[in-house]
Amino acid sequence: MFKAKATFSSISVDDLPKAKTFYTKTLGLDVEKEDTGLRLKLPGGGVLYLYAKDDHKPATYTTFNFVVEDVDEAVDALAEQGVEFEHYDGDYKTDNKGIMRGGSNMGPDIAWFKDPAGNILSVLEHE
Fold it and tell me: Fewer beta carbons within 10 Å, N or C terminal of the chain?
């Protein structure tokens, strides 16, 4: 039987110093360890590893979700720091702030934004 000793998530970026600034200064994460990339300490005890990749291509899906108590407050706080939120139509229609309001079995209230490397992240309100 497979039994993992530990787990962590990783995503590539095209500019490690720029990513470090964004993830630590804008998102408030602590750098736990630096070696060939960045090891960021996450709320709840997880780890996100960022590594530089010369031919980096941003993910076209949400790579990372930040659970928050109030999505409107999170969007406002990040927007004040220059974060721009994605706006979508169709099934995932967002409002003028970039928030898709869940309700009616659509899931949590969620807002998507990109890191400096173009990877899609989100803040979502979840109990």
Answer: N
With respect to residue 1, please indicate whether it lies within any of the assigned structural domains.
no
Number of independent structural domains in the chain:
1
| Within a domain: 2 | no
- Count other Cβ atoms within 10 Å, centred on residue 37: 19
Looking at 1-127, list the stretches that DSSP marks H as alpha helix, in order from N- to C-terminal side. Answer: 16-21, 71-80
Distance CA 96, CA 87 (A): 8
Bridge partners, 11 (sequence order): 50
Question: What's the CATH number where 93 sits?
Answer: 3.10.180.10
Q: Are 114 and 124 in contact (CB under 8 A)?
A: no
Which is nearest to 34 in space by CA: 56, 19, 54? 19
Rounded Cα–Cα distance for residues 85 and 78 (Å): 9
- Tell me if 26 sits within 8 A of 66, measured CB to CB: no
